[in-house]
Each structure stands twice: as structure tokens, then as C-alpha cells.
Amino acid sequence: MRVLIDTNVVLDFLQEREPFVENAARLFERIDVGEIEGFIAATTITNIYYIIRRVAGRVAAQDAITQVLSDLNICAVDLKVLEQALALNFEDFEDAVQYACAVVHGVDAIVTRDASGFINAEIPVVLGVVA
Question: Is residue 123 helix, strand or coil?
């Protein structure tokens, strides 16, 4: 199964945010053993770095990015993805970019904690845990 992981779920895992870390850790365990192939949008990398650096410093942010790069596939955010994201007319452009990446890379589901960002999605949206 191929899943695009929303930024909030990646941050739950990296920052061990309660009460969400358990579900996120389960997801990453399944990625580590090859049951699931995980994807994130390239823009998620910069968001993660910014958020973690602000909270825990540059070294922690770099360590987090190193971990993400070793665990997940990175979906390019190019002109095609950005144009598709704009055409979606989502309330949140970040969610639109992630959704467009999911479409381009043919994922089976999007894993998030905020399904409201993906209303009317044609790809299944899963809250927190992939069955």
C-alpha cells in the first residue's frame, strides 16, 4: 500500500506529540518493515524543518530531516503539481499541494489527522491509522 502522509502526522511522530504519537509510530513501523510505502510532498520537508528548528533547534531539525529522508519517498512539487493544487480550490493550499502530489504519484490513501482539509478527495483519506 502506498500512502501520502500529511505533515501533521509526520510531526506527531518526530515530536512525539500526545495523544497522536502512538498511531504515527505504528504507521512508521509499518513503513520500516515494508508493509506500507510512505510518501510526503517536498514542501513538507521545509515545513518540518521550520517547525522543529523553532521548537528544538537547528541540530534537532536536521536530525528530523535526515530521518524523514531515510524513511519516506519525496514527491516533487513542480509546476504541474502547483497548477493542479491551484485548480483544486482547497481552503488550505498546503493540503491542495499534498493532494496533488498524492494524485501524481498514484497513492492508495492519504493519512492525516485533519480530514477536513481533503473534503471531496477522490483518494481515500484515513484518520491516523492505516488498516
Answer: coil
CATH number at residue 49: 3.40.50.1010
The three-state secondary structure class of 102 is helix
Residue range of the domain that includes 17: 2-127
Measure the CA–CA gap between 95 and 43, rounded to whole angstroms: 11
Confidence class for position 106, pLDDT limits 50, 70, 90:
very high
Q: How many CB atoms lie within 10 A of CB 96?
A: 21
Q: Which three cell numbers stand for residue 109?
A: 490513501
User: Can you state the angle between helices 21-32 and 7-14, rounded to 10 degrees?
Assistant: 90
- Structural domains in the chain (count): 1
Residue 131: what pLDDT? 56
User: Quick one: CA torsion of 33, 128, 118, 54, rounded to 10 degrees?
Assistant: -90
Does this model's pTM top 0.85? My answer is yes
C-alpha cell at 92: 488550505
pLDDT of residue 33: 95
CA distance 25 to 9: 9
Residue 130's SS3 state is coil
